[in-house]
Amino acid sequence: MCYSKCFSSLVYRRALGVVCVSLGLNLSFIAPAASFTTFESGQVRPMALSPDGSRLIVVNTPDNSIEIFSVRSNTLVRLSSVPVGMEPVAVAMRNNSEVWVVNHLSDDISIVDLNTRNVKATLRVGDEPCDVVFAGDPPRAFVSVSQEDAVKVYDPDNLATLFAYSRKLAA
Protein backbone atom coordinates (compact mmCIF):
# COMPACT_ATOMS: atom_id res chain seq x y z
CA MET A 1 0.00 0.00 0.00
CA CYS A 2 1.02 3.66 -0.14
CA TYR A 3 1.53 4.01 3.62
CA SER A 4 5.13 5.27 3.40
CA LYS A 5 4.18 7.67 0.58
CA CYS A 6 1.39 8.99 2.77
CA PHE A 7 3.74 9.93 5.60
CA SER A 8 6.37 11.43 3.29
CA SER A 9 4.17 14.46 2.60
CA LEU A 10 5.46 17.34 4.69
CA VAL A 11 2.15 19.20 4.50
CA TYR A 12 0.22 16.12 5.58
CA ARG A 13 2.59 15.44 8.51
CA ARG A 14 2.50 19.05 9.71
CA ALA A 15 -1.30 19.21 9.55
CA LEU A 16 -1.66 15.89 11.34
CA GLY A 17 0.92 17.00 13.92
CA VAL A 18 -1.02 20.17 14.70
CA VAL A 19 -4.22 18.18 15.29
CA CYS A 20 -2.42 15.60 17.42
CA VAL A 21 -0.77 18.24 19.59
CA SER A 22 -4.01 20.21 20.00
CA LEU A 23 -5.84 17.04 21.06
CA GLY A 24 -2.94 15.94 23.29
CA LEU A 25 -2.35 12.80 21.23
CA ASN A 26 0.76 10.63 20.91
CA LEU A 27 2.90 11.53 17.85
CA SER A 28 5.25 8.55 17.97
CA PHE A 29 3.82 6.90 14.83
CA ILE A 30 4.90 9.78 12.48
CA ALA A 31 8.14 8.96 10.67
CA PRO A 32 10.83 11.60 9.94
CA ALA A 33 10.36 13.60 6.72
CA ALA A 34 12.28 12.86 3.56
CA SER A 35 13.41 15.78 1.41
CA PHE A 36 11.37 16.23 -1.77
CA THR A 37 9.78 18.85 -3.98
CA THR A 38 6.01 19.00 -3.99
CA PHE A 39 3.88 20.08 -6.94
CA GLU A 40 0.37 19.25 -5.72
CA SER A 41 -2.39 21.80 -5.14
CA GLY A 42 -2.47 23.63 -1.84
CA GLN A 43 -4.79 22.21 0.78
CA VAL A 44 -7.77 24.31 1.83
CA ARG A 45 -9.31 22.35 4.72
CA PRO A 46 -7.33 19.12 4.98
CA MET A 47 -8.95 17.66 8.11
CA ALA A 48 -12.41 17.11 9.54
CA LEU A 49 -13.54 15.58 12.80
CA SER A 50 -16.81 13.64 12.78
CA PRO A 51 -19.67 15.32 14.69
CA ASP A 52 -19.47 12.65 17.40
CA GLY A 53 -15.67 13.10 17.69
CA SER A 54 -14.90 9.44 16.98
CA ARG A 55 -13.18 9.77 13.57
CA LEU A 56 -10.66 12.11 12.01
CA ILE A 57 -10.56 12.36 8.21
CA VAL A 58 -7.38 13.73 6.59
CA VAL A 59 -6.71 14.39 2.90
CA ASN A 60 -3.61 12.73 1.47
CA THR A 61 -3.11 14.92 -1.58
CA PRO A 62 -0.01 13.18 -3.06
CA ASP A 63 -1.74 9.79 -2.87
CA ASN A 64 -5.19 10.99 -4.14
CA SER A 65 -6.87 9.53 -1.07
CA ILE A 66 -8.20 10.25 2.38
CA GLU A 67 -6.92 8.67 5.56
CA ILE A 68 -9.45 7.62 8.19
CA PHE A 69 -8.39 7.58 11.84
CA SER A 70 -10.21 6.48 14.96
CA VAL A 71 -9.81 9.04 17.74
CA ARG A 72 -9.10 7.26 20.99
CA SER A 73 -7.80 8.50 24.33
CA ASN A 74 -4.32 10.00 23.80
CA THR A 75 -3.79 8.49 20.34
CA LEU A 76 -5.02 8.11 16.78
CA VAL A 77 -5.52 4.68 15.24
CA ARG A 78 -5.33 4.52 11.44
CA LEU A 79 -8.34 2.60 10.15
CA SER A 80 -7.94 2.81 6.39
CA SER A 81 -7.19 4.77 3.26
CA VAL A 82 -9.86 5.46 0.61
CA PRO A 83 -8.92 6.43 -2.97
CA VAL A 84 -10.74 9.56 -4.16
CA GLY A 85 -10.32 11.98 -7.10
CA MET A 86 -7.18 13.80 -8.17
CA GLU A 87 -5.60 16.19 -5.66
CA PRO A 88 -8.03 16.25 -2.74
CA VAL A 89 -7.73 19.63 -0.98
CA ALA A 90 -10.66 19.78 1.46
CA VAL A 91 -12.97 17.53 3.46
CA ALA A 92 -16.30 18.21 5.18
CA MET A 93 -18.34 15.84 7.31
CA ARG A 94 -22.01 15.78 6.34
CA ASN A 95 -22.79 13.51 9.29
CA ASN A 96 -21.05 10.73 11.24
CA SER A 97 -21.09 8.32 8.28
CA GLU A 98 -20.57 10.55 5.22
CA VAL A 99 -17.68 12.80 4.19
CA TRP A 100 -17.42 15.00 1.08
CA VAL A 101 -13.93 15.28 -0.42
CA VAL A 102 -13.14 18.20 -2.74
CA ASN A 103 -10.81 17.10 -5.57
CA HIS A 104 -9.15 20.18 -7.08
CA LEU A 105 -7.63 18.68 -10.22
CA SER A 106 -10.37 16.21 -11.20
CA ASP A 107 -13.01 18.96 -10.78
CA ASP A 108 -15.32 16.88 -8.61
CA ILE A 109 -16.37 15.88 -5.12
CA SER A 110 -16.05 12.30 -3.89
CA ILE A 111 -18.81 11.36 -1.46
CA VAL A 112 -17.44 8.68 0.86
CA ASP A 113 -19.50 6.32 3.01
CA LEU A 114 -17.42 5.89 6.17
CA ASN A 115 -19.20 2.66 7.14
CA THR A 116 -18.22 0.85 3.92
CA ARG A 117 -15.11 3.02 3.38
CA ASN A 118 -15.92 3.44 -0.32
CA VAL A 119 -16.80 6.29 -2.65
CA LYS A 120 -20.57 6.02 -3.07
CA ALA A 121 -20.95 8.93 -5.53
CA THR A 122 -18.90 11.43 -7.52
CA LEU A 123 -20.33 14.89 -8.13
CA ARG A 124 -18.89 16.92 -11.04
CA VAL A 125 -18.88 20.55 -9.89
CA GLY A 126 -16.76 22.61 -12.31
CA ASP A 127 -13.21 23.81 -12.89
CA GLU A 128 -11.00 23.63 -9.77
CA PRO A 129 -13.33 23.35 -6.77
CA CYS A 130 -11.77 24.48 -3.49
CA ASP A 131 -14.13 23.84 -0.58
CA VAL A 132 -17.54 22.61 0.52
CA VAL A 133 -19.61 23.71 3.50
CA PHE A 134 -22.93 22.34 4.79
CA ALA A 135 -25.47 24.85 6.09
CA GLY A 136 -29.15 25.71 6.17
CA ASP A 137 -32.44 24.08 6.98
CA PRO A 138 -32.92 21.92 5.05
CA PRO A 139 -29.15 21.34 4.80
CA ARG A 140 -27.45 22.38 1.57
CA ALA A 141 -23.91 21.85 0.25
CA PHE A 142 -22.20 25.10 -0.80
CA VAL A 143 -19.24 24.47 -3.12
CA SER A 144 -16.72 27.13 -4.12
CA VAL A 145 -15.42 26.69 -7.69
CA SER A 146 -12.33 28.82 -8.21
CA GLN A 147 -11.91 29.00 -11.99
CA GLU A 148 -15.58 29.78 -12.49
CA ASP A 149 -15.46 32.36 -9.68
CA ALA A 150 -18.65 30.73 -8.44
CA VAL A 151 -20.48 29.22 -5.50
CA LYS A 152 -22.75 26.32 -6.39
CA VAL A 153 -25.48 25.01 -4.12
CA TYR A 154 -26.45 21.32 -4.08
CA ASP A 155 -29.07 19.22 -2.35
CA PRO A 156 -26.93 16.65 -0.50
CA ASP A 157 -29.75 14.08 -0.52
CA ASN A 158 -30.16 13.79 -4.30
CA LEU A 159 -27.07 15.77 -5.53
CA ALA A 160 -29.25 18.09 -7.62
CA THR A 161 -27.83 21.52 -8.45
CA LEU A 162 -30.15 24.06 -6.83
CA PHE A 163 -28.42 27.34 -7.60
CA ALA A 164 -25.15 28.79 -8.88
CA TYR A 165 -23.83 32.27 -8.28
CA SER A 166 -20.92 33.58 -10.32
CA ARG A 167 -19.44 37.06 -10.24
CA LYS A 168 -18.59 36.54 -13.91
CA LEU A 169 -22.29 36.05 -14.72
CA ALA A 170 -23.43 38.84 -12.39
CA ALA A 171 -21.04 41.46 -13.88
Give a quick precis of the structure.
The protein has 3 helices and 12 strands. It has 171 residues and is mainly β.
Low-confidence stretches: 1-8
Question: Kindly, what is the distance between the CA atoms of the first and last residues, rounded to a whole number of angstroms?
Answer: 49 Å
pLDDT averaged over residues? 85
Number of helices: 3
Percent helix among the residues? 10-25%
Content of β-strand: over 45%
Largest sheet entry: 4 strands, antiparallel
| Tertiary shape | globular
**Rg value:** 16 Å
The helix/strand series, from N terminus to C terminus, equals HHEEEEEEEEEEEEH
SSE class: mainly beta
Number of strands: 12
User: Spatial order of the strands in the main sheet?
Assistant: 1-2-3-4
Walk me through the structure.
With 171 residues, this protein is mostly beta strands. 14% of the residues lie in helices and 45% in strands. It has three helices and twelve strands. The strands form three sheets. Strands 1-2-3-4 form a four-stranded antiparallel sheet, covered by helices on one side. A hairpin with a 4-residue loop joins strand 2 (55-60) and strand 3 (65-72). The longest helix has 14 residues, at 10-23. The N and C termini lie far apart (49 Å). 32% of the residues are buried. The model is unreliable at 1-8 (pLDDT under 50).
